[in-house]
Design goal:
single chain; 578 residues; alpha/beta; Rossmann fold; 9-stranded mixed β-sheet; 8-stranded mixed β-sheet
Amino acid sequence: MKDKSHGGTSDLCACRLEPGFCFRLSAHRLFYMNRSSLLLFALLCVLCGQAPAAETRDLLLIAGQSNAVGYDAKPSDLPADDADKQVMFWFRAGDPPPDEHDVTSGGKWLTLQPQPKGTPMDKSKMPRQYGNFSGATGGFGPEMGFARALFAKEKKPLAVVKAAWSGTGMAQDWNPADAGPGGSCYRALVAEAKAALATAKTQGVTLRIRALAWVQGESDANATAAPRYTQALGDMLAALRKDLAAPELVALVAVNTQFGGGKNALMPKIIEAQQALAAKDPRCVYVDTAGATIANGAHWDSAGTLEVGMRFADALLKFEAKPAAPAGGAPFPGKKSVWNGYDRYDFQVDGKNLLVVVPKQAAPGKPWVWHGEFFGHKPAPDIALLGRGFHIVYLSVPNMLGCPDAVAHWNKAYAELTGKFGLAKKAALVGLSRGGLYCYNWASANPDKVASLYGDAPVCDFKSWPGGKGKGKGSKGDWALVQKVFKFADEAAALAYKGNPVDSLAPLAKAKVPLLHVFGDADDVVPWEENTGVIAERYKALGGDITLIRKPGIGHHPHGLDDSTPIVEFIAKHATPR
């Protein structure tokens, strides 16, 4: 952990004695303790039974081309600010491609500061060599204004990773799909971020990736690249969120709108492209840099660079403070509470308890996730999707196991959610374990209302569970419940039933509903061969699209994935606006 009273530079020993009291000593003070004091300190740590205290900080990423580098921003123009001591800083910047001539923090965390010029490559030896910074003393980018402004507002220590290279373009340097030179800057950004995260962890600091400040587009203001810019930047942001396991990353995108001094006819196209992406991506914000003072026709000056950084901070805070969009439906009624930082509403529909968790800002079309059962278990995908503007819904009809009466309750809830509250006409269904019965049975009856279906070790045939008529353990009590709620005359009628999910896939295939199943291949409760395996074989035969994620050697538990990105991306990809 870092000693905040010393600018984040002193190591700390800490042990918690009781709630609300933490005993701390900085390393240099510990060195001068006498032997008896050291013994007392060691005894206290043993009695406490705790490791050194941990710290969590928000991480900001800075990336792009020369205005992200801060090519013409002079360190001598930068006013001093004590906030810099509260910001961990890791950087790599220079000219393309990323190489040994970049100026770096040396693969370690420093405090926020301007960067030196370093040892740039001889300009005559390779194209696009600009000398790292224009001035002999180096420079600084928008990270200074961004971090300082955020700290001034929030009074929370931060971390910044900067990875920027002058004169770089999307296809030429930032293409995540290009394993060659065309993706070199993108790969370097990911590598620097991962190395910084790992190093911080060894120092007792956990970093939460909060936002990316992207300053780029000037190099793409040409007839070839400009028409492709929205797609190229969107693809890069999607890859970055995936590669850094940061699906909630807020992308703040900007460009020097004065680039070319008004003589580049395609600069407006780049601005429009960034604005179009911000309108499409619910976690992307266009930051207008008009009016930031410039040094020349290409770059902001020192004051302009600081100003743009402060605009990034303002844009991020405004984005995070936005309430859920009320447009397109009535406000939710019932009891209001907070679930993982998001507003939750509990009320009744058709005599059953319904809960809705609301995003800070609803995505266009108000997409939503509907859980069959076990809401709140393994919540990482839900939290990530809330960050992307999805609503999360759960209708409590326990012990109904997806029977026709349960489907009827779901129908009433769907009508209320889409008609009165304006949610999308197609829902992303999540069926965990027995929740699979609810999701599949409702989906087969309403295939036109389903955007996608994600099953996690889902029950797809009640003869397998709870019936236990195959390899699984079964559940005697739940098997009796199946016969009761489905209103079977006897067990023979239940065994002869042809309305299980494995029997009802044709409507979903016809409607082209994409499926994702995550399963453990050692599951002895809901054996995958009798459930997921049958679904996969039959759905493929019907021409359906199904993705399988196998967890070798895993049983029915634990559910989910350690990295929920594939689940989040699957649901987000197939979300359908209403």
